[in-house]
Amino acid sequence: MDEISIRVLAQLEPENLVSEGQSWQQRKSIQTRVTILDAAVDCLQTHGYGRTTTQLIAEKAGISRGAMLHHYATKQDLIAAVIDYTVYKRMELFLHGVRALKDSDRIAEMAGIEIFWESLLTREFGAYLELAVAARTDPELAEIFLPKARRYDQTELAEVIRAFPEWANLPEAYALAMDYCNAALQGLLINREIWSEGSHRVLRRFVGQTIAMMLAGDLTLPQAVSSKAG
Amino acid sequence: MDEISIRVLAQLEPENLVSEGQSWQQRKSIQTRVTILDAAVDCLQTHGYGRTTTQLIAEKAGISRGAMLHHYATKQDLIAAVIDYTVYKRMELFLHGVRALKDSDRIAEMAGIEIFWESLLTREFGAYLELAVAARTDPELAEIFLPKARRYDQTELAEVIRAFPEWANLPEAYALAMDYCNAALQGLLINREIWSEGSHRVLRRFVGQTIAMMLAGDLTLPQAVSSKAG
DNA sequence: GGCTGAAAACCGGCAAGATTGTTTGTTATT
DNA sequence: AATAACAAACAATCTTGCCGGTTTTCAGCC
């Protein structure tokens, strides 16, 4: 991974997990925290936000609830840390996929879409989606989730274009393409169990196709913000 | 509303709410059940699936928990009824929007997209989305939700084309357009608080534009299901 | 280098509150 | 008289946060 990607990742890195612990206690603490956060991600992905209890997380992490509450005093503290962790891991996974893409053949537009799609199938994004939906109806969660989610979005926007420099001359089209890709694939993910497998593939190919046309200039973009446009 | 729409609605109509009650008790029972279901929809939309308790629903409905449990013995019974009710109301609202659309000017393609979008902003769809997401991590809920959701999807597919008969000659394109529209707008809805207002409008216009191009035949559709296509 | 008090990591138990389902009772309808 | 609509109280369970106690590590001092 090149140094700029590392810098981008560092920008999102959770604060209490960064310091390369000098002392034994610091290293142990960080290790336990990561174990807890991984367990929390698993619980979110498997049982959803509403059914994720501190008991369950502690069990999956293999420590006692008391020990966990020593590291994260309240559930809210833990969730806040999980948000940071999830956002960080999501970007890490995506950059990893992009790097693999750059090394590979990179066949037309479909490869990018499929990398994107696969990044949505990870347990990290599963946890992220649970938090995003829960934040829609939980003001306290929204307060800590939304700023971090917006920052992730900005970081993603700034980073993906580095992997696809052919968009550099089309900033508006690029911004639209990113939102478009996110919206369509996340919407597909939600309806995954409802729609048929065949629909999935056709839809993903269609999205890739339209994005390729945007890049080629074969689609006229909508007028930018006309504040009264309905 | 024409008779075919009524037939379509009847196909989704919740069983225990249909009978035009002859007796006083039947009418009273149905009325109370509808009050409860409306309250449940409100709770789902406002507090999310995880925080929707029977206590909260009963309070919002203005009756005692005991009375509510007389009509719906368990929470699962209630949720099952809410699913039916939500699916029904969602279709009812959509048909209502489509009918208004048919009477109006129906300017190009954007009107259809905006009708679709507005149907996603209702509390009924808010409740539906909560159930859909919760069903992803709750096997018991999924068991009762998924069959109903799939049936709704089929009904929607069969009904929308009646409002837009110009697609009749393009069945594959039509099926793709429906999934596409659902996926993109639902994905937009999830990210509503994360993205800026300007992005919303541009994205919706873009979706409308691409769908218009599909109709006009200006987009080559992806090959249908090639079972090994990545 | 070894000792000692402080602090950290960790565990188990406890109480307060919330949630669900049952049960018992009252009023109104059939 | 039987049944339905409704209400209120109850028990059982679950979840959270807090507290006391144990073991291990750290920092200062002889």
Order of helices and strands of chain A: HHHHHHHHHH
Task: Assign the structural class of chain A, choosing from mainly alpha, mainly beta, alpha/beta, alpha+beta, or little secondary structure.
Answer: mainly alpha
- CATH C-level class of chain A is Mainly Alpha
**Global Rg of chain A:** 19 Å
CATH fold type of chain A: Tetracycline Repressor, domain 2
Percent strand of chain A equals under 5%
Kindly state the number of beta strands of chain A.
Answer: 0
Q: Tell me the count of domains of chain A.
A: 1
Which chains share the greatest interface?
A-B, 61 and 60 residues
Terminal-residue CA separation of chain A: 44 Å
Q: Count of helical segments of chain A?
A: 10
CATH architecture field of chain A: Orthogonal Bundle
In percent, how helical is the residue content of chain A? over 70%
Inertia-based shape of chain A = globular
Question: Quaternary state, please?
Answer: homodimer
Short description:
Chain A is mainly α and 230 residues long. Chain A has helices spanning 3-12, 24-47, 54-61, 65-71, 75-103, 110-120, 123-135, 139-163, 171-190, 197-216. Chain A has one domain (3-216): Orthogonal Bundle (Tetracycline Repressor, domain 2), CATH 1.10.357.
Describe this structure in words.
- The structure is a homodimer of 230-residue chains.
- Chain A has 230 residues and is mainly alpha-helical.
- Chain A has helices at 3-12, 24-47, 54-61, 65-71, 75-103, 110-120, 123-135, 139-163, 171-190, 197-216.
- The first copy, chain A, has a single domain (3-216), classed as Tetracycline Repressor, domain 2 (Orthogonal Bundle), CATH 1.10.357.10.
- In chain A, helix 5 crosses helix 7, helix 6 (110-120) packs across helix 9 and helix 9 (171-190) runs antiparallel to helix 10.
- Chain A is globular, with a radius of gyration of 19 Å.
- The relative contact order of chain A is 0.10.
- Chains A and B meet through helix 2, helix 7, helix 8, helix 9 and helix 10 of A and helix 2, helix 7, helix 8, helix 9 and helix 10 of B.
- The structure holds a DNA duplex (30 and 30 nucleotides).
